[in-house]
Amino acid sequence: MDKSAYPYHGGRLRWHSSLAKLTFWSFVFIGIIFIFFYRSPSSVSRFHSDPSRRSLRTSSWGGPAWEKKVQTSARIRSRNGFSVLVTGAAGFVGTHVSAALKRRGDGVLGLDNFNDYYDPTLKRARQELLERSGVFIVEGDINDAALLKKLFQVVPFTHVMHLAAQAGVRYAMQNPSSYVHSNVAGFVSLLEVCKEATSQPAIVWASSSSVYGLNTKVPFSEKDKTDQPASLYAATKKAGEEIAHTYNHIYGLSLTGLRFFTVYGPWGRPDMAYFFFTKDILNGKSIPIFEGENHGTVARDFTYIDDIVKGCLGALDTAQKSTGSGGKKKGPAQLRVFNLGNTSPVPVTNLVTILERILKVKAKRNVMKLPRNGDVQFTHANISLAHRELGYKPTTDLQAGLKKFVRWYLNYYSAAGKKADAR
Ligand SMILES: O=C(O)[C@H]1O[C@H](OP(=O)(O)OP(=O)(O)OC[C@H]2O[C@@H](n3ccc(=O)[nH]c3=O)[C@H](O)[C@@H]2O)[C@H](O)[C@@H](O)[C@@H]1O
């Protein structure tokens, strides 16, 4: 074929080939950008974040300045001190435990995903508080294995205080997957990284009084069976205890589970009854007070935060070393579970009466039958094991503890002009 007879056709061919080249290079360029983003450590958590519990900021981590901050925060400043990774450090218990560890000279690094299960400004305020005492909180999720591995590369943690969790009994009916994500998958993700460490850390973690579920024998003892959880929350905490057993058995990780009993106090959680009762009483709003069948009492073994902190520190101090290394068990390791309660259950109606007295405001009580929402009718801890092994001895009764809580509440929400965005 005489190509010269078709000059236009030849031009179109050239045009086609340059279009093909352009398309090819565009793909290469987009591909490079994609690979860069996918491999960049700061993007990892974005890909792994849980859509059901939004983190309000995009997290970023990595780089020399970040590593230095991590190391400085985790540096031990006392003889025989620990280097502790505290997960859920911007949470209620996490903040108090981190501050206490730092005060006594342990190195502390926080990790928190700052999700919006409750008002994240409260979590940010707790973060500020910790920052002032030298505790850095890394923003990230316990499901982010790349981040956890990095943290263990930067700091050889001696201990992990694992408090990151999806808390709250009733919310489990609204957002069940968030419980599986944090309390089951997140826990496994953390244990996987811990077991791989050359020097495995000892792990102390938050279980819950809710594992006693529908048990009727009181007080609840660690020896009792825990096979009747009343909520998905309780079921995920119970699963955590079984998972702990497995990692202890296979990899030699030292694991201590603490069954917390309705912890309350300053910097507390706005989703908990004592907190939003305070807010609603002050706002003249009626409060739902649950009661059992035939006007049966609903009661909790409310435990003050400072007592819980002492229990947590006692558990860390008595935790034996893990025995494994690099994913291999070298010998049997410690496996423990303790109740951390107050041993004196208080009916919810009495809690309200105490609040009325402290606030000097009459509550608008709306007494109703305990809804089928996962709540159990009562909790009551036997703490003799924790007393014996950890030296645990709660000293704050509900009246004294609530006074301290209310003082903090009024100060926090009035001084800072913050709104009590409780639920
Ligand atoms: O002990 C525990 O392990 C658990 O303690 C609390 O759970 P809960 O005891 O249900 O604490 P609140 O939500 O503050 O409820 C306290 C009491 O107030 C009652 N309540 C709650 C809400 C309400 O509107 N009215 C009401 O009477 C509940 O039934 C319960 O008896 C925490 O929220 C859980 O995260 C924790 O794991």
From TrEMBL:
It catalyses: UDP-alpha-D-glucuronate = UDP-alpha-D-galacturonate. The keyword Cytoplasm does not apply. It is an enzyme of class 5 (isomerase). GO terms for cellular component: Golgi cisterna membrane. It is found in: Golgi apparatus, Golgi stack membrane. Gene3D superfamilies: NAD(P)-binding Rossmann-like Domain (3.40.50.720). Its EC number is 5.1.3.6. Keywords: Isomerase, Membrane, NAD, Transmembrane, Transmembrane helix. It holds the Pfam family Epimerase. Its main location: Golgi. The keyword Acetylation does not apply. The chain crosses the membrane at residues 20-38. It is a multi-pass membrane protein. GO terms for molecular function: UDP-glucuronate 4-epimerase activity. It comes from the Eukaryota. Homodimer. Belongs to the NAD(P)-dependent epimerase/dehydratase family. This is UDP-glucuronate 4-epimerase. It comes from Linum tenue.
